[in-house]
Specification:
- This protein is an alpha/beta fold.
- Helices cover 38% and strands 15% of the residues.
- A 7-stranded mixed β-sheet has the order 3-2-1-4-5-7-6, covered by helices on one side.
- Strand 2 (102-106), helix 5 (110-123) and strand 3 (129-132) form a beta-alpha-beta unit.
- It is globular and about 40 Å long.
């Protein structure tokens, strides 16, 4: 019997893991791709925290939404609302649906912007809403007569400066959870986590050198 025949008989019935290396490589590639994908998604949520001010995503409660809707000014024939840090879009969508006004949101997180647009479409107010993925500090707020802010305490001073310099005269500004440090509200609604403060801009600070005074 030849050597080749002996080798063939010895190998009959034996399992030879020929593709083991290929499976191992495929697994490593899958893990690597999954890791990169998760990193990209997670970074979009973490990135805002790497900026000067962190504006975390905290969904508005049902009571907060109700309070905001009651504070929105609808006396202007060209009512237009902006939600600064619009998150999942629920304030914008509720305003457009309840008051039939044009409502916009500005949000840095792209996934929340996509979700907001989808929610607006599903709710039937897509035509009256817009969601912008932009840095709120560079966003023009001068076209809105209603501005809603869900901020954190550390950023209210800078937001106050932006409002007093950029918001249009007689604009209604609604802050939720935290008030402005210097401006005096015309009224307040509720208390605790559902608190909100209502301000009215009655003086143009843009073209003056005056110190910012209470509205």
């Amino acid at each position: 019997m030849s050597t080749s025949e002996t080798s063939t008989k010895q190998n009959v019935g034996k399992y030879v893991p020929v593709s083991q290396n290929n499976k191992s490589k495929s697994g490593k590639i899958l893990i690597a791709v999954t890791g990169v994908g998760l990193s990209i998604i997670c970074y979009s949520f973490v990135a805002p925290a790497l900026r000067k001010h962190c504006l975390p995503y905290v969904p508005a409660t049902t009571k907060q939404i109700k309070n905001v809707l009651s504070a929105i000014s609808t006396s202007n024939s060209a009512n237009k609302l902006l939600d600064i840090g619009s998150g999942d879009g629920r304030i914008v969508i509720a305003a457009a649906k309840t008051h039939s006004i044009e409502a916009h949101g500005v949000e840095l997180n792209p996934w929340l912007v996509y979700y907001s647009r989808f929610s607006a479409m599903r709710t039937g107010v897509y035509a009256n809403t817009k969601f912008f993925r932009k840095d709120l500090w560079k966003f023009d707020i001068s076209n809105y007569n209603n501005i809603v802010i869900f901020g954190v305490e550390q950023m209210m001073q800078d937001l106050e400066q932006k409002i007093t310099q950029e918001a249009q005269l007689n604009a209604t500004i609604i802050t939720c959870r935290f008030p402005f440090p210097n401006l005096v509200p015309i009224s307040t609604i509720d208390d605790g986590i559902d608190s909100l403060w209502i301000y009215r801009k009655s003086f143009d600070y843009k073209n003056t050198n005056m110190k910012i005074n209470p509205v």
